[in-house]
Amino acid sequence: MTVIAHISDLHVGMTSFDENVFLKAVDEINNARPDMIILTGDLTDNGYYREFQQVKKYLELFESPLFAIPGNHDSRNLGYQTFEELIGERSWKLTMGGNLTVIGLDSSTPDENRGHIGRPQHLWLDHQLEDCVRNNHFSIVALHHHTIPVPNTGRERNILSDSGDILNTLTSRGVNLVLSGHKHVPNIWKLNDLIIVNAGSLSSNKLRGKHGNSYFMYYMSDDEIEIYLQNVGGERFLLEKTSINPL
What we know:
Elements: E1 2-7, H1 19-32, E2 36-40, H2 49-59, E3 66-69, H3 79-86, E4 92-96, E5 100-104, H4 119-134, E6 138-142, H5 163-172, E7 177-180, E8 187-191, E9 194-198, E10 214-220, E11 224-231, E12 236-243
Parallel strand pairs: 1-2, 2-3, 5-6, 6-7, 7-9
Antiparallel strand pairs: 1-10, 4-5, 8-9, 10-11, 11-12
Helix pairs in contact: 2-3
């Protein structure tokens, strides 16, 4: 079985970050011993160099391998450069166990809130997904901005500007999971055979309505996937259980 933790929107900074909640989440995730952790953006609140220095120390508390992509907050104030220096590449591809591929995309634009993949990165994505189809890999794509609107988040403003083209590629290439963050509201959509998961905020106090801090856990066996919403320090809910192609 492959276990993945999906966290998002830490917002490490002066006022938005709740350190106590974050440390509690670290303990919970370390106890779960996932094979990997995917962080879908907004590690910092303003993209300042000092915030990235702080978040790097916080991320070192996780015991499992962690792979992050930037969010719109991370690309402010030259943060898109700092991300590469202190965190890692802004887009990447990795393979686990020979038959699971995870692709991270940078959907951020410097000093703007909107999301955009762009033609060069889109072509690169399509090429990687073509390999997944050829090799019969289970495929996961992670990006910060949501590809379709998320309920209970008010007026839609920051969806991917090229979401139609990206969704067409994701569905036509048979992607299994799309992981996002950005709106601080957990949600799952099913589009044909594609499961689209939007994570809430792991440790920010910028929360909507009664939503608390949370993260997702994915448990993938040979023939099915279970997706759990875990409230930090609270209840856990099974939100999706579905059959998948063998890993």
